[in-house]
């Protein structure tokens, strides 16, 4: 343990992101770093509390050795910190930027002080390692002669590919998009996760021996049976890409889009041409309504702000969460408090108020004779919670409103994986139409086919996708070799 009194001497200091009004002028990352001494002070705040809930699977799904590397950060032993970090996490440059950091809500210091800045510490360790040239290709010493196909190049597929390649198997990743990364590439926008970082990691993995096949839609232009026949194992890591719709009157109007249509077209155009090709949904000068909260809704707000939208409203059916921890809940840092994400901050900086409207239900999209969206009709709802029952809502009579809108983005979550590939492989699905494969074993009803990530667990987080990719790789290795030494 490093500095026993660090948590009493230093207060929590998070990185100060670029100011909202400045950063909406471009799509560059808004994340910044503290200087080295300040970062080391933040590492010193870790109490080495004895029961590190932060690194339990609740706090960190990949079981990062958090107190150990916090201490190494405090001591300025950056290379050792990096080596500890790489033991558990294939892609800390992603989680250090986009993870909602359940580790910090589990931090014991959070009982009476703000939690340790675990996520920012992680990000600094890995960014310094890249800058110092420590991230060199790790070419496996020997090859097993076994071939594994990974379908889908999101964090689940990529972490599995990384592990399996290190175990000496010949790994090919098939991706239907033109770029590798799944939602790391075409979901999470550039200002939150710079695509140069994703390309940098992809290049490293290619140097290490992994083959990437882009524009390869398995089940459409790559016959899936051929893939199964040609490989010793196949991993389905195709994500949960089916968006939840809002089938109210007017849904067909021009201007109503799924969030992913907006986000993907924007990032693709940004990378292809710096948005010069115009092949994206442009929110410039438009009145935008984002329906649904969460990361996806917030990313739609941030992207619209960068286009220069004329107005922004964000509807949320759920009630407004509390801003402070209430006396009746025992968690150190309650994770469901109202938090301002970057898009909310940016909208508030430009338009002067929080864009969020809570407890509001969309009833209808309104349009003109040309079939273009002109507005959204809503009603307020009241939430009712009876003891022992699930919360339910009732519409509040007389609370109907009409909101002007030129663009609506639907960010209502995802229903699960697309079924076509699953049907072709004749895989069983669970009650939520995810691929059925027990957590811990990951094998599907086809003995050569495994499943991991959002395709198996449903819409989740990057860190859970990495957890599942690593764990599925271990089971694939065990199936191919009889034993496994993969962590
Ligand atoms: P995905 O990342 O979805 O990757 C699946 C890949 O499979 C895709 O590239 C898809 O094209 C490919 N594919 C599908 N079918 C085929 C086929 N037949 N042939 C070939 N390829 C195929 N999580 C966080 O932790 N933090 C965040 O800030 C965050 N922000 C998010 C923002 C948005 C807009 C969205 C939608 C999600 C966000 N998430 C975030 C969730 C997170 O991105 C996902 O949980 C995670 O990416 C799931 O990883 P995965 O590998 O299972 O699937």
Keywords:
FAD/NAD(P)-binding domain, oxidoreductase, single chain, alpha/beta, globular, oxidoreductase activity, acting on the CH-NH2 group of donors, NAD or NADP as acceptor, 5-stranded parallel sheet, 487 residues, 18 helices, binds flavin-adenine dinucleotide, Fumarate Reductase Iron-sulfur Protein, Chain B, domain 2, 3 domains
Structure, described:
- Helix content is 34%, strand content 15%.
- It has 487 residues and is of the alpha/beta class.
- The protein folds into three domains: 6-131, Fumarate Reductase Iron-sulfur Protein, Chain B, domain 2 (Orthogonal Bundle), CATH 1.10.1060; 147-241 and 415-481, FAD/NAD(P)-binding domain (3-Layer(bba) Sandwich); 245-412, FAD/NAD(P)-binding domain (3-Layer(bba) Sandwich).
- It has a five-stranded parallel sheet with strand order 3-2-1-4-16, sandwiched between helices. A five-stranded parallel sheet has the order 6-14-7-8-9. Strands 10, 11, 12 and 13 form a four-stranded antiparallel sheet that branches.
- The longest helix has 20 residues, at 462-481.
- It is globular, with a radius of gyration of 23 Å.
- It starts with 5 loop residues before the first helix and ends in a 6-residue tail after the last helix.
- Bound molecules: flavin-adenine dinucleotide (FAD).
- Flavin-adenine dinucleotide binds at residues 98-99, 151-157, 174-177, 182-183, 187-188, 216-219, 237-239, 241, 263, 295-296, 299, 421, 453-455, 460-463, 465.
């Amino acid at each position: 343990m490093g500095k026993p009194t660090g948590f009493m001497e230093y207060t929590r200091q998070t990185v100060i992101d670029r100011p909202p009004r400045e950063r909406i002028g471009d799509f560059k990352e808004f994340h910044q770093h503290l200087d080295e001494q300040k970062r080391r002070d933040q590492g010193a705040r870790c109490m080495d509390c004895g029961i590190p809930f932060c690194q339990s699977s609740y706090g960190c799904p990949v079981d990062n050795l958090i107190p150990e590397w916090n201490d190494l950060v405090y001591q300025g032993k950056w290379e050792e910190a990096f080596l500890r970090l790489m033991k558990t996490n294939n892609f800390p440059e992603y989680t250090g930027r986009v993870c909602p950091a359940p580790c910090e809500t589990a931090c014991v210091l959070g009982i009476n002080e703000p939690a340790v800045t675990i996520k920012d510490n992680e990000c600094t360790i890995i960014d310094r390692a890249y800058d110092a040239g420590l991230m060199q290709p790790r070419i496996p010493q020997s090859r097993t002669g076994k071939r594994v196909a990974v379908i889908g190049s999101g964090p689940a597929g990529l972490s599995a590919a990384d592990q399996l390649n290190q175990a000496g198997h010949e790994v090919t990743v098939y991706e239907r998009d033109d770029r590798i990364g799944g939602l790391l590439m075409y979901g999470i926008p550039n200002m939150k996760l710079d695509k140069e970082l994703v390309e940098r990691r992809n290049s490293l993995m290619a140097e290490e021996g992994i083959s990437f096949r882009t524009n390869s839609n398995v089940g459409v232009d790559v016959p899936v049976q051929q893939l199964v026949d040609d490989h010793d194992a196949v991993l389905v890591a195709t994500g949960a890409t089916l968006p939840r719709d809002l089938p109210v009157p007017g849904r067909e109007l021009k201007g109503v889009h799924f969030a992913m249509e907006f986000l993907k077209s924007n990032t693709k155009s940004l990378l292809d041409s710096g948005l010069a090709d115009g092949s994206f949904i442009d929110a410039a000068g438009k009145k935008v309504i984002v329906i649904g909260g969460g990361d996806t809704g917030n990313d739609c707000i941030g992207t619209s702000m960068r286009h220069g939208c004329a107005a922004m409203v964000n509807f949320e059916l759920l009630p407004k969460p509390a801003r402070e921890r209430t006396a009746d809940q025992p968690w150190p840092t309650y994770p469901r408090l109202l938090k301002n994400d970057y898009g909310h901050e940016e909208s508030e900086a430009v338009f002067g108020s929080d864009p969020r409207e809570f407890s509001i239900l969309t009833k209808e999209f309104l349009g003109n004779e040309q079939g273009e969206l002109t507005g959204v009709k809503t009603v307020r709802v009241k939430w009712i919670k009876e003891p022992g029952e699930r919360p339910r809502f009732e519409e509040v009579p007389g609370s109907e409103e009409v909101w002007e809108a030129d663009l609506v983005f639907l960010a209502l979550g995802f229903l699960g994986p697309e079924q076509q590939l699953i049907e072709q492989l004749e895989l069983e699905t669970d009650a939520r139409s995810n691929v059925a494969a027990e957590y811990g074993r990951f094998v599907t009803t086809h003995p050569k086919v495994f499943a991991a990530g959002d395709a198996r667990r449903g819409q989740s987080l990057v860190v859970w996708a990495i957890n599942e990719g690593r764990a599925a790789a271990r089971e694939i290795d065990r199936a191919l070799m009889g034993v496994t030494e993969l962590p």
